[in-house]
Protein 1
Amino acid sequence: MNPSPSAPAERRSLNSHLYHVSKAPDNLRHLILDISRAAKYISYAIQTTEAGLSGTVNMFGEQQEKLDILSDQLIQEHLQESRLVASFACEEHDSVIELDPKASYSVVFDPLDGSSLVDVNFAIGSIFGIYAGKELIGRKPSEQVAALYVLYGPRTILIYSTGKGVHEFLLNDVGEFILLRENLGIADTAKNYSPGNLRALEDNPGYKQALDQWLKEQLTLRYSGCLVADVHHIFSKGQGIFTNIGGSKYPRGKLRHVFECGPFAYLAEQAGGAASDGKKAIIDLPIEAVDQRCPLIIGSKKEVERVCKMLQ
Ligand code: AHM
Ligand code: MG
């Protein structure tokens, strides 16, 4: 599939897009809007909270945590306030938290991905996946009814899908998410590569082979250390490959299946790309535990396939 994101014909808000274009059910639309409101507060906190700019961590590891915890609290408050969330799971808790068992949706989220990059003023992000119903364990990412992420960079942008394409919004000066591009696509072949956890090269000859190929074929390296920014690069440029592969110490790598790999896998498939753990499509891997780890090979379909073959 060749990417052909189209520019919007008119100014369109996230609300209007969810309603008129994605035709999302009202509850889902309201939930996504509530999540987007939490993201606006996080975006503001990153700009204004001193802890966000004053160093990675102090010797007790405190300052960094402030922004992580603040983001988590902001999201939880907005989820609670929405009255639409039966349960949620996130990085800060080791089990699923129940809110209102009769509510329509469950939400998984990584409140502040890449927060170790706050002190160096790199882009960071938040990731969300939404499931219908209250159960999360046993579900597969393919069952998500929506996934979205927010990238806090020089500009704050939000990317979402409710299963009808992947769409990109910019947070404008008056605090509204306005459509930038619709139907982002990921081409089958990659020109950029983003290789995470290169420590695994030593244990994993397949990964070394993939890296050698990329070097030989002179792909362009793009790696920031924030998953949201690095995978967004693929959505934005319409091609690329990102990998985070385990080594002998952590065989399934560092990334979490529930809040990181699952939502991105859903979005990648929606954009015509692919996401695999090396053997299976990530959208088909059931959630067994909240803290489950998962290798991630995501991006241009042919490149994902090629890497998976080398890893066998
Ligand atoms: P975090 O959610 O605690 O910030 O960790 C996840 C991050 C990803 O954004 C990134 O791809 C990965 O960790 C980088 O790992 P490493 O520091 O090992 O390169
Ligand atoms: Mg993360």
Protein 2
Amino acid sequence: MKKLLAVLLVLAAVLFVFAACSKKAEAGVEQARSTDVTQGMDRKIVMGYSQIGAESEWRTACTNSVQAAAKEWNIDLRFSDAQQQQQNQLQAIRTFIQQKVDIIAFTPVVETGWEAILKECLDAGIPTICVDRSIEGSDRISTNPNDTSDPDNWFTAFIGSDMEQEGNRVAKWMMANVPALKPDKTVYNIAELQGTVGSSAMTGRFKGFRDTLGIPAATALGTSSDGKYKIILSQTGDFTRAQGKQVMEAFLKSNPDDIDVLFAHNDDMAIGAIQAIQEAGKVPAKDIIIIGVDAVKGAFEAMVAGTMNASIECNPLLGPQVMETAVKILNGQPVEKWVVSNESDYDQTNAAAAFPSRQY
Ligand code: AHR
């Protein structure tokens, strides 16, 4: 009995030492992550974050990434959901200024209307990070940091995708694949579901798609320079599944047999449209070729099931880059004006292999 007791005591002591060591290791990581800026401060970095809302699978993944990264970096995150209203974003950012947060990150729901609030942040000495979507007039390069009329000088850094390039990638995928998928045709009619009107994700994808096809960027409908691709329908579905379905239903009513390709500015709208196509008695991914943007899980499921053709990735896992950039800015270290995301294209040829390792 005594021997058993002794063994148990030794075991408990070993476990205690092991737990203490791993706690220390964790604290070490935290200290490294919280970096110099918090040294000598008796509090954490405070970041105000104005998110657009929860309109899509992509947005949920982005929010989760930001919240998890804030924990990981030991940053006190004040998170505000604007429910798709710019007014709510302006209000939230003003509140962050009053609260004297250390740094503000925000995703502008639309491109216009940011000058005044960003100048208020500058006047208050609070740096800002633009996440995912950008603002009007910004090319995310600042040639003269003293030029207050250049929108690129109203924020400190931008972290996100090249939306125009995503539009280019959709058009390139379409031109490379649609002729083989629809061999009975030589001219292809395209229906387009646009994202939230006036958002950089919408304007960028809209323009990039047309640029690659040789269609003037300012026109909604038009024919490619080689005469093979015609945008015959183009309307917003506001990046939501419900509106994607609704608008596709209307497209199919007005043009029951004419649509060869659907370009949806995001996967949620593509998934909504697939339901509308099925309900109209057509076969998605065969009668109508479906290309989305985002590469979220729902799109992978559809590609593996054979109801969607392709999804052009837009990476929502921006949280770690946001936190790292914030800490660098607050430490006075140089940061890139534009931290661009790494992205790939997926279709029915590589979706099944990539699916198991997808994080969103
Ligand atoms: O700004 C990124 C876009 O916004 C994503 O493509 C879309 O799904 C989201 O709602």
